Amino acid sequence: MACLAGAMFPYWFLSTPRIGAMLLSACMAGSLLGGIESTYAAMLGGFVVGFAQVVMTLWLMSLLGEWMGAYRLMIPMAILIFVLLLEPRGLVGVIERLRATTVGKQIESRLKR
Amino acid sequence: MIEQAAIVMQGSGQRLIIDICMFFGLFVIVAMALNFQYGNAGVPNMGSAMSVAFGGYLVTGFIVRILYRLAESAGVTLLPYNDNWGWLYNNYANTVTVNTFMVDNPTLGLAVFFFSLAAGFLFGWFMGYVVSLPVIRLGGTYLMITLITMADVVQLFGINYVPLSGTTLGTWVPDPFEFWPGDRGLILSLVTMIFSLVCYLILRTMLNSPYGRLMRSVRENEITVGSVGKNVTGIRRNVLMFVSGITAVAGVLVCWYYAYGVGQSYARATWTYWPWLMLMLGGPGNNAGTFIGAALVIFMRRLIVVYKFALDDFIFFPMVFFENMLLGSLLILVMIFRPDGLIPEKLLRIPGINYRRLVRETTEVDWKATTRSALSTEEAS
Predict the structure, then answer these.
(1) Pairing, β B260-261 against β B171-172
(2) Using CB atoms within 10 A of its CB, is residue B337 exposed (0-12), middle (13-18) or buried (19+)?
(3) What ipTM goes with this model?
(4) Which of A50, B153, B332, B341 is the 20 to 30 Å CA partner of B293?
(5) Which residues on chain A are in Cβ contact (under 8 Å) with B268?
(6) In this structure, are residues B116 and B59 in contact, taking their beta carbons and an 8 Å threshold?
(7) What DSSP letter does each residue of B151-166 carry, written as one string?
């Protein structure tokens, strides 16, 4: 799967042999945001990080200037740090915390019906 | 007198030996710092490239400006360098002018050089504190991931921010040893070797101190250390800050050696993965192993770099790939065949205590009597 992603990459981005190193932080941020324990959650996390990286870079470029585009790698790093500090298990951990609450249990029982 | 000494020393020492000594000194500093951190305190720092970059940025972004200002105050006319364009395109010409000025000012050159070492340590130490604020509470793998990412971002600043290190064009650094008629690398390699020896002695003393034993206990079991009232986070932070300071000095030295600084040179492979290979090859937890690991790896690397054209005829693939292939294959081989490294960790030397005897001491337990008393207690209850 990672190889397939790499094969798709040069169709859209300017690529060099070192591009994998630049992708590393975004990949880690995505998988940690979703949660390492779940495949589907990691997919969701990857989408959120990729979306946030593009949208926030555009927003910051319009707010601060064109130069901000070069620092787009800082966005996954910020996401990574926030996730690790707030909920190291990512979305999986958030869902489990919600399940433990009374409201979460009620929602779960309703969904099961 | 200085000229004659320089000619004699240059004649006896080949360029390759100077190069190997310089890089051995630099990488021994970084690998020993990693050993202090990972081998003894259990903090896996995969961001040592970041600390090296801090040292490099200090020289290219701050020390070079100080040298320019000092030269200007002495009456030397320099091309404009305060705006981005001037900093990028007048940098080389200004460096040549400052070098001419430095020939007659050896004291100034030496003062700036030693100031840069002290400033590099303090800057690295401070940045170690800043970096530790969000990450120090994280566990092993998570800490590694975050520090790798942070190192990438710090390198990104160097590549894109002009006043820091001239983006992709880099910044030329004036030579503080311009008064020396011979090879500048000779003095720098000597200073680096001496500094690595000083680092070794400091780290050795620290490891054999009560704080060193506390660090090892943090490595073995953080929860136990925390339960007896020790500040585990504080210990980890102190270690990260100290090590960041030492590694930043290596960054300062490499900038003076190249007489040039550019963001791309603080690559993750060079300043994180290679020192980790040296550490794992020598054996984590002891500095002697780190020395041997660094010596072996540096010797191989410099030989490949220097004799790449000669070696190209014997290998069917381009020689430029061989260095990175060597890194990967050596790491795999070490992890499979010698996970403890060439020299496994030894017991600590604690003055006044025969630690070896204490560890070998066996406790005799009379299991029969213990079982009998336990049974009698159960029957009574």
Answers:
(1) antiparallel
(2) exposed
(3) 0.81
(4) B153
(5) 21
(6) yes
(7) HHHHHHHHHH-HHHH-
> Using the beta-carbon criterion (under 8 Å), do A76 and B149 form an inter-chain contact?
yes
Length of chain B (residues): 381
Tokens (6 digits) for B343: 């020299």
Give the Cα separation of B227 and B242 in Å (integer): 25
Helices (H), ranges, chain B: 2-12, 15-34, 48-58, 64-73, 84-89, 91-102, 106-135, 140-160, 162-165, 184-207, 210-220, 222-227, 232-258, 268, 274-282, 287-306, 308-312, 322-337, 355-360, 367-380
B144-183 pLDDT, tens digit each: 888 998 998 899 899 999 999 888 899 999 999 998 888 8
Q: Residue A43: which domain range?
A: 2-112
Residue type, B308: K
Q: Which of B198, B232, B227 is nearest to B216 (CA)?
A: B232
User: CA distances (Å), B145 to each of B20, B45, B136, B234, in order?
Assistant: 31, 9, 12, 21
The minimal CB distance from A71 to the residues B148, B156, B268 is found for B156
The dihedral sign for the CA sequence B38, B41, B42, B47: negative
Rounded distance between C-alpha atoms, residue B337 and residue B317, angstroms: 27
- d(CA B252, CA B259) in angstroms, rounded, equals 10
Local structure of residue B59 (DSSP, 8 states): I
Residues of chain B falling short of pLDDT 50: 12-13
Taking only residues 262 to 321 of chain B, the set having a beta carbon closer than 8 angstroms to any beta carbon of chain A reads 268
CA-nearest of B53, B120, B47, B18 to B275 is B47
Number of domains in chain A: 1
